[in-house]
Each structure stands twice: as C-alpha cells, then as structure tokens.
Specification:
The protein is an alpha/beta fold and 431 residues long. It has twelve helices and 23 strands. The strands form six sheets. Strands 2-15-17-16 form a four-stranded mixed sheet, covered by helices on one side. The protein has a four-stranded mixed sheet with strand order 4-5-3-14, with helices on one face. It is globular.
Length: 431
C-alpha cells in the first residue's frame, strides 16, 4: 500500500492550546467550496452572466476564478460575491495553472473537451499525484485528443474534436469527481451526453450534490437505469445563486463541541442542505452530542460522555474521515473506520498520514488498504503534528491537539486551500 509521506520542510508551527469545556460559540462557516466550484464551472458555461454570493475565501476558488479569466471570461469580485461573465465559445489555445485544486483539475479537464483549441492544465507538484486516467479515457471515447503522465497525472493536455461524441463510458471507483466533471459540462455538448458507468460509484453524495446544483440552474440529469446517466443538450440559466456554508468545514466545529462538552451554532448551514458531509452532525449525535436542527442553521452541544461507534463506514463523506480520526482516540472502545479507499489519492495519503500522526501522539492504530482501526490509548503524548501540505490534515490535527494540549501544528497556513479563516474561527474557542 502507498506509504510515501514526503512533505516540504515546515517553516513555522502553531501552538494549539487545550480547550476548556463550557464555550458557547456562534459563527458563520465559509461558503461551501464544493458548491462554489460547481457553480463557477456552471457560470463559465451559462449564456449570460451569473452573480454568486457566499463564495469562500480559499485557494481552490481562486484557482477556478483565475482559470475562467484565462479561458476568456471576466470576473468582478466584491467581498464574498462575484459577477462571472462566461468565456466566448471560440477555439483558443490556453494554459491553466490550478495550484493544488484537484476538483478544479477534474472539472476543467472535462470542460476542455468543448474547446477545439489546446487546453494545457497543470499546477502545484502535489496536483501531479492525482490520477485522471479514467476521465481522460472517457474524453478519448468522445473524440478528444488527450495526453498526460502515467495514469493521467497532470500536466494534461486536451484538444476537443470538431464533432464531439454523444456517448461515453466511465469508471468512477477512483473518484466521483470524474462523473461530476462530465455531468457539469454535458449540457453544452452539441448532442448532450449519455454516460455508461462501468463500476460502482465512489462518494455518491458528491454526485448527488452535482445534480442538485445543476437542477438549481435549470438542467436535469436523467437516470434511465442504475448504470446510465443522460444529460440532454440544454442551457444553464444565469442570474443569482447563493452558496450555503461548507459542510466539510462544519465537521471541525462539530467535533470541537462534541469533544469538549461545549456549544457551537453554525448560522449558515442546516437541514435543507444536500451536502453529504452534513451527515457528520448525525455522527456527533451518535457520540452523545445534543443537536438542534433548523432549515438554515444547526446547534451542537457536546456530549457529557462520549459513546463508542464501533464500525463506521465513511465512504459517503470521505472528507470528514480525518475529523473522525481525530475524535476516535477519545472514544471508550476501538473504532474501525472503513470506506477510506479514496483517501489514498487526496492531497496526501490521508490513511497513511493519519496513522502516522496518531501514533506520534501515542495512539495505537492498525492500517489497512481502505480502512483503519483506532485504539484508545492509556496516555497521550503532546507532539508536533505534520500536515503534509494538506489542509484537512491540519484542521483535523487541531481537533486532536485541542484535547491533548501542549501540541503544535506544522505549516498551519495550508488551511488556506479551502478555509483561509480557520485559525481566526478556532480562536473563538480559546477562553
């Protein structure tokens, strides 16, 4: 199994205090990165301008906005809002640099099939470890010329054909982002697109989020059977769209409240969401937290004593898995976490990295190819946690460190990839 945990030398570290119980925090989450990136891609294809409100301040969104500009669109940003005018539909050669944004990489690879010119897509060296072969093969089947490294690693180059095909086949077990990418661009295909799935969908909740955001902009995805999805040719509507709070970001705050017996109210995320990671709130309830749910906000009051989870499948909320890794050592019995296969190919190998950092703190962990078992330790060791240039490792380790005390987090600024204000919000819990 992969164990390459190479990381850039840390230039700084952040001390994480042990939090005291009894805090009562009220905050607004950053806008959902997952929704923002989908809506930005849609805006780049809509026939008229789109105004988005609630755009998060993070590197991934900046990368997508920059790409829209390089494709020929215009972006007028004002605080957490932006007016996006779509690029013209004329062939042009373009080079896109996407930093570490793997989601933007996949979304723009699929969109590049619409460009009869050459689209070269690359970014930070970390991006070159994100496989894209299945998506590139689907584009080849549609008539595109594509090239990339082994297993489709970036940089990749895509040139759309003069006559784009209307049917393709796709493997999705590696990443649901391949399917979301094709679905989002499909309405702009001259004949629409029929996708024949060749295997089981990974992270189905993210595909559901994609189809929901497409429906918000007037495009329906049809499913004549479990292995086929059809998107007729259509135009996205322009106009206004509001982006709700980020459910993945919510997991860190829900975990802090649950672990410390405190209270947090998240004011811009509630039961009306279709984000898969919102299910983490229910997981906190299983652990003993008291939850007050409303349509547009949620309140988490921490557990008096934590309950065991036993076996837990995280396949439908993989981005929340590192947060669970940070809670698991404090549960009264071992926790076996499954459904982690896609974590091997995130910003880092989050299974191997998670196991390494838990062991650093004195926690016994068993590592498997797509799972891990976390055992409650007798004693914790204060330590300096590595983050592997991975925003979710940094935020998850801050949750773990907040209960151990006297710990540090290396490279804390890596959280800017998706949550630039995380440390400002974390300070709300410090007495």
């Amino acid at each position: 199994m992969p164990t390459d945990l190479a990381k850039a030398p840390a230039t700084e570290a952040r001390a994480i205090p042990r939090l005291s119980p009894g805090f009562d925090v009220r905050l607004a989450l950053p806008g959902s990165k997952s929704i923002a990136l989908r809506q930005l891609l849609i805006a780049s294809l809509a026939p008229r301008p789109t105004r988005l409100v609630g755009i998060p301040r993070c590197d991934d969104v900046d990368a997508m906005l920059d790409a829209i500009g390089r494709l020929g669109g215009t972006v007028e940003r004002d605080g957490d809002g932006a007016l996006i005018s779509p690029p013209p539909r004329t062939p042009r050669d373009v080079s896109l640099h996407l930093g570490m944004s793997g989601v933007s990489l996949r979304f723009l690879i699929a969109r590049a099939g619409l460009n009869a010119g050459s689209t070269q897509i690359g970014g930070h060296p970390q991006l070159s470890r994100r496989p894209n072969a299945d998506l590139l093969n689907a584009l080849r089947h549609l008539g595109c010329q594509v090239s990339g490294g082994s297993d489709g690693f970036a940089p990749v180059t895509v040139r759309g054909p003069s006559h784009l095909g209307a049917e393709t086949k796709l493997r999705t077990s590696v990443s649901s982002q391949f399917l979301s990418a094709l679905l989002l661009s499909a309405p702009a295909f001259p004949q629409g697109l029929t996708i024949h799935l060749e295997d089981e969908r990974a992270s189905a909740s993210y595909v559901a989020l994609t189809t929901a955001e497409m429906a918000r902009r007037g495009v329906e995805v049809l499913a004549p059977d479990e292995q086929t999805l059809v998107v007729p040719p259509a135009q996205y509507t322009g106009g206004d769209a509001t982006i709700e709070g980020d459910a993945s970001a919510a997991t860190y705050h829900a975990a802090l409240a649950t672990l410390h017996g405190g209270t947090v109210t998240l004011t811009n995320l509630g039961e009306s969401t279709v984000q898969g990671d919102y299910a983490f709130i229910g997981l906190c309830e299983r652990l003993g937290a008291t939850i007050r749910r409303e349509s547009d906000q949620v309140r988490i009051h921490g557990a008096k004593s934590l309950r065991p989870l036993g076996n837990i499948d995280m396949s439908n909320m993989p981005d929340a898995a590192p947060t669970l890794m940070a809670i698991a050592p404090f549960l009264p019995t071992p926790t076996h976490i499954t459904g982690l296969a896609t974590l091997r190919i995130k910003e880092c190998d989050r299974i191997a990295a998670g196991c390494t950092e838990l062991r650093r703190a004195g926690v016994a962990v068993e590592e498997f190819e797509d799972a891990m078992t976390v055992h409650p330790p007798r004693d914790f060791r204060p330590t300096r946690f590595a983050t592997y240039e991975d925003h979710r490792m940094a935020m998850a380790m801050s949750v773990l460190a907040s209960r151990i005390g006297h710990c540090e987090i290396e490279d804390p600024d890596c959280v800017a990839k998706t949550y630039a204000d995380y440390w400002h919000d974390f300070e709300s819990y410090v007495a």
